[in-house]
Amino acid sequence: MADKTSYHLLAKPAGAACNLRCDYCFFLSKAGLYPGQKQHMTDSVLETYLRQLAESQPGPVCPVAWQGGEPTLMGLDFFRRSIELEHSLGGEGVTFENSIQTNGTLLDEEWCQFLAENGFLVGISLDSPCELHDAYRKDPSGGPTFDRVMRGVELLKKRDVDFNILCTVNATNASHPPEVYRFFRDELDARYIQLIPIVERDNDTGFQEGDRVTARSVDPAEWGTFLNSIFDEWMRSDVGEVFVMMFDWALASWAGAPQSACIFAPTCGRALTLEHNGDLYSCDHYVEPGYLLGNITDTPLARLVNYEQQEAFGRRKQEGLPAVCRDCRYLFACNGACPKDRLLTSPDGEPGLNYLCEGYRSFLEHVDEPMKVMAGLLAQGRAPSDIKGLISAAENETFAGVGRNEECPCGSGLKFKRCHG
Ligand code: SF4
Ligand code: SF4
User: Fold this and answer.
1) Model pLDDT, residue 175
2) Where are the strands (E) in 170-268, listed by range?
């Protein structure tokens, strides 16, 4: 019997097909892997997928994650059939939990009613307020998409569908951290926010060695200041109310808890991708012929995910670390980050340094002290959000009795009334 260790799988029922043409999308070109094929998961592959997924998960909860391309292009009936199949398989003691990542533009009342009734968690791809979002997220004629995404978000909110935000951080929005964060928190009332840096290799295949990236890619230093700025605001007012995945992942590292984010775990390889025809690949970022493990209609999923080829893929994340990472004081939290972004040669001439290292290092240094405090609170059985009270008490002490026109004691050089006053 196959080993039942847990893994996460993103399924792409419509393959790379999408109704939008975002400039930085790395997946549209994947349609070239299946020339002449309709990118459409058949009912037979769907049934095989759900049955094998349920059989191979170690616990009673079975996560079903739909992604794309744009999965809503499959139409609502496909997902209705998927729920019917889950109900019939659920009789075997398995509970399915569904999520879907979408650009939100095709959501209507009927979709949102379905998503609400079936408890879907919906991930919305949205980059920021209007003009920052529309910089790269375009429709096939190059037109803006922000208003259509927002219409979808409003419909989700109307039906009380759980949603989170997936925001790519790129050359345009990275210099606007407060606007980006406050827009999600205050305008959308989003409580779960995932920030994904855009790092695009500037070559045709995307898999050659080299450190060239496109102009749309986020600058490494700016990635760090972006995270630091949002972290400061989050820590003062939103810990425990707004969940920024990057910060939760960092806290897990400081608290010594298991790392759920593959990019920060020592090894990876347990986050795989299923194409519309049943082909299984090592990772969403490695949907390439060299990383094809097999097809689930020929070989059971449980066997494919545990292939030695896949184990070796996961180990390479650790084995490929340059000395500068192995000696880094933040290795425990960063682990060299995602191998797909390891484009640089380290100062001592070794390949494999992450393009975003400067940003990660700046962020990890910046959060070191507060993370120690929050990890300490957790160890005492207290909530990490208690840090807000500690900060405010410390500030009250520091700023007590300072006159409005005096220099602020924080060292900013500003008058107190223009700074912490
Ligand atoms: S290659 Fe990157 S995204 Fe893929 S599983 Fe490894 S760490 Fe995660
Ligand atoms: S911060 Fe930089 S040097 Fe340190 S582990 Fe991460 S990528 Fe490596």
Assistant:
1) 96
2) 192-197, 243-244
Mean pLDDT of 143-170: 96
pLDDT tens-digit series, residues 309-365: 999 999 999 999 999 999 999 999 999 999 999 999 999 999 999 999 999 999 999
- Which residues does a 6 A CB cutoff place in the pocket of ligand 1? 262-263, 268, 271, 283, 285, 317, 338-340
Ligand 2 touching residue 356 (CB < 6 A): no
Is 284 considered catalytic here? yes
| Whether 200 contacts 213, CB under 8 Å | yes
Tell me the Cα Rg of the chain: 23
* Candidates 232, 284, 341, 368; catalytic one: 284
- Decide: 344 in ligand 2 pocket, CB within 6 A: no
How far, in Å, is the centroid of ligand 1 from the Cα of 329? 22
**Mean pLDDT estimate for the chain:** 91
Higher pLDDT pick, 45 / 401: 45
CA of 286 to the centre of ligand 1 (A): 8
Atom of ligand 2 nearest to the CA of 321: 8
Are the C-beta atoms of residues 155 and 108 closer than 8 Å to each other?
Answer: yes
CB 370 within 8 A of CB 235: yes
- Say how many Å lie between the CA of residue 120 and the centre of ligand 2: 36
Nearest-CA residue for atom 8 of ligand 1:
262
Residue 54: pLDDT over 60? yes
* CB-based burial, 189-225: b 16+ in 10 Å, e otherwise: ebebbbbbbbbbbeeeeeeeeeeebeebbbbbebbbb
Helix axes 220-237, 357-379, angle to 10 degrees: 20
Q: Is 300 helix (H, G, I), strand (E, B) or coil?
A: coil
Q: Which residues have a Cβ under 8 Å from the Cβ of 52 and sit 6 or more positions away?
A: 296, 300, 301, 302
